[in-house]
Write a structure and sequence with these properties.
The structure is a homodimer. By secondary structure, chain A is an alpha/beta fold. Chain A folds into two domains: 2-249, Acetylglutamate kinase-like (Carbamate kinase), CATH 3.40.1160.10; 259-418, VC0802-like (2-Layer Sandwich). The first copy, chain A, contains 14 helices and 18 strands. Chain A has helices at residues 15-30, 45-56, 62-86, 118-125, 152-163, 197-205, 213-222, 278-288, 304-310, 314-319, 334-348, 374-384, 408-418, 424-430; strands at 2-7, 34-39, 91-94, 101-103, 112-115, 129-133, 136-139, 145-147, 168-173, 194-196, 226-230, 238-241, 257-272, 296-300, 323-330, 353-365, 391-394, 398-404. In chain A, the strands form three sheets. Chain A has an eight-stranded mixed sheet with strand order 3-6-2-1-9-11-12-10, sandwiched between helices. A six-stranded antiparallel sheet of chain A has the order 14-15-13-16-18-17. The longest helix of chain A has 25 residues, at 62-86. The two termini of chain A are 29 Å apart.
């Protein structure tokens, strides 16, 4: 079996952890497998380098940031190669360019355009363990070193697995896999055995931080099986693949997990003109700035109760000829959206804009959300927990609800339990593993 | 003018110093010069990386040590590029391989085999400031990253200056140049205006640490003028070149400087057989281990005084048919030499071996040492200071004496003063510069 293993910064925080990972790698290798290792930078290295950059420059050029940051993965890779060597196996570390990771020229957020892992293959053929510095590549035209942006090391690992036709790409982290909910919020959350790319994409988009969408997209496009697992335990982790995870879905509900995100801003735009293009005009202001909108709702300006009363007043009919838009953006984009809408208010002709960052989003992910009655069940479950739902949106495999930020944890727990995802087994077995 | 400037670790210790160096670089560039920068790793970075390596491996492979250590220069170069950019000038950092520094495959102590600085030249032609990571190169055959060993960044700078036909290679350090003696020992020591390659080589070989022999050799072979100067002052420093430094030599004496080294072991081998090959046999033991011998002396077994007495004893004639060898090796090689000689004693057939590490070597460097009477003057000067000379050796441009370690500083001061090198000017002018 050919396995690409990627180890994140927390698995490589100090020399002691590096030695423990090396032991795991050597064990796998001695088991008769071909192993390729991708390392992130150690612990907080990247943050420390960014801090140094800020101390010498107010606006460091992206090209130089890439040269700076890529040193982190070179260090962790070389140290891991030494630690493997120290255990008697042969290992060679390769920088991104040496491993044939070619990217476009977009410094700081480069895209992989080609992977030509000749030297990786050669090392494998010699029976050695090649290590590839994650997160980095080289632009063939300029010869400049690039970085892949956030989650880049995962992308390196998946891209290598695709190019080498590896049997599996193991992503090692500090948790036992992809969980049915954030275990810090839901004590009875458990790692999923298997999950499809599509489900994983929705999980990632709605708050599961263990894998980023970009890496999952790459894996889906190139048919790479990913296994997310912990470098601190022997738990098998979660398989992310194409196969519809019969065993992963909880019997009867087909709901894979509950995700949540605290970083949400609800934007309400009042008195939007009724002309057909007005809604698009409002959303274009946000889209032009490259800010994605998640949940979206368009309503009459007056609430249902108010509309009944409007029959008595002709003037009220006039008021209801204008609409109200509500949508959500990520919390960090909130202030910018408010600013942009303020700038364009007169041109587009809408009324007051209200931004509320004191909200959270909870999502059910899984094929089961398409079943009839699921929205009602979600509302009932949350209502029984005393939680007020402000907004609901649904896609093919997820159902999201907006609620008050201080009710978010309760909402996650209510749905996890209400949709039958709770399990005592994992918590019992893994109590005291120090996760 | 095209200038290659090399900045050492102490000039780049923290972001503040990096910003100060950047200011100096930008000033030079704005003055209408083409500037190429070579940076060492920041402060103690290399030591910290070596420490990490030791924590993961008892015997780290040299290839991986090179991958690890070269990250240090990438960091300092990128930060310097940012700091220059922050001051409004254009700068691009290049790793050793990007700058076309090709070496042999001897990891940890690679030799430069070719410098093809196309990208450096391109950057200059664009009016930009190229920065090259010092100490590192790449082996063309294997594609592996190499390091040049101790003093490697100086070699990078000189090699680039040669390849680019630069007008001068400025080596920035934390002192004002090459001194007439170590200023920590001799308060009246002063930086030399100019010095020849040959003199600099002897200075380096006998204790001046500011430039290593290897870098000076490279400069001499490729006719590169080196200027050693401080990154903290505007002192012009010392020019190391081919021109016989008329102005550098102190009038009348032609002695350039006094150097010293505390790391010496005196080895005495007693009762060496008189057969012609015996001396060579002893020295071969040391040479075979790659250990260089500096001072050397062969004497009859009995001292001059004892030999007068020997006329009275026939048996003493027999004793004097065996000889005694005395030579010096560097202090760190002392224990190994003692061990080696012990192993080969029976085969070669010599007597007791005595090693004394409690000695120091003081040297006069300069063309003036060839003048008649100079050895006598050295002995008289040291005798007047109450210092006993144990061994003397002379080459074309240096004269070295071995003395007790605790008398070394006094010996250095006596010679510096006795050969007219003292100058109050520098000390007065530079008092309070905080050097």
């Amino acid at each position: 079996m050919l396995v690409v293993q990627k180890y994140g910064g927390s698995s490589l925080q100090d020399p002691d952890r590096i030695r423990r990972v090396a032991e795991r790698v050597v064990r796998m290798h001695r088991g008769g497998h071909e192993v390729v290792i991708v390392c992130s930078a150690m612990g907080d290295t990247s943050d420390e380098l960014i801090d140094l950059a800020r101390q010498v420059s107010g606006d460091p050029p992206a090209r130089e940031m890439d040269m700076l940051l890529t040193s982190g993965e070179r260090v962790s890779n070389a140290l891991m190669a030494m630690a493997i060597h120290d255990r008697g196996s042969s290992a060679q570390s390769l920088a991104g360019d040496q491993a044939g990771v070619f990217t476009d020229a977009a410094h700081g957020r480069a895209r992989i355009v080609e992977v030509a892992p000749d030297r990786v293959r050669e090392a494998l053929d010699r029976g050695s363990i090649p290590l590839v510095a994650g997160f980095q590549g080289v632009n063939r035209e300029t010869g400049d070193i690039t970085t892949l942006g956030r989650g880049g090391s995962d992308v390196t690992a998946v891209a290598l697995a695709a190019a080498l036709k590896a049997d599996v790409c193991e992503i090692y982290t500090d948790v036992d896999g992809v969980f049915s909910a954030d275990p810090r919020v839901v004590r009875s959350a458990r790692p999923l055995e298997a999950i499809t790319y599509e489900e994983m994409l929705e999980m990632a988009a709605t708050g599961a931080k263990v894998l980023m969408s970009r890496c999952v997209e790459y894996a889906r496009r190139h048919h790479v099986d990913i296994r997310v697992r912990s470098s601190f335990t022997d738990h098998p982790g979660t398989l992310v693949s194409n196969s519809v995870g019969g065993s992963s879905a909880v019997e009867g509900s087909h709901i894979t997990g509950v995700t949540h995100t605290r970083s949400v801003t609800r934007v309400t735009v009042e008195d939007v003109p009724v002309r057909p293009s007005a809604t698009a005009d409002v959303l274009d202001v946000v889209a032009a700035a490259g800010i994605p909108v998640d949940m979206f709702q368009k309503t009459g300006a007056q609430k249902a109760g108010a509309q009944k009363a409007s029959a008595q007043h002709a003037g009220a009919e006039n008021a209801s000829s204008r609409t109200e838009l509500t949508f959500t953006v990520s919390g960090e984009d909130g202030p910018r959206v408010a600013e942009l809408l303020g700038e364009h208010r007169d041109r587009v002709g809408f009324g007051a804009v209200r931004c509320d960052g004191d909200v959270g989003q909870v999502s059910l992910v899984g094929a089961g959300v398409r079943e009839p009655g699921i929205v009602a069940r979600l509302c009932r479950t949350l209502a029984e927990a005393g939680i007020d739902v402000q907004l609901i949106s649904a896609s093919e495999i997820r159902l999201s609800a907006l609620c008050r930020a201080d009710e978010l944890d309760a909402a996650v727990r209510a749905l996890h339990s209400g949709f039958g995802l709770d399990s005592d087994t994992y918590a019992t077995v893994h109590a005291g593993t120090g996760r």
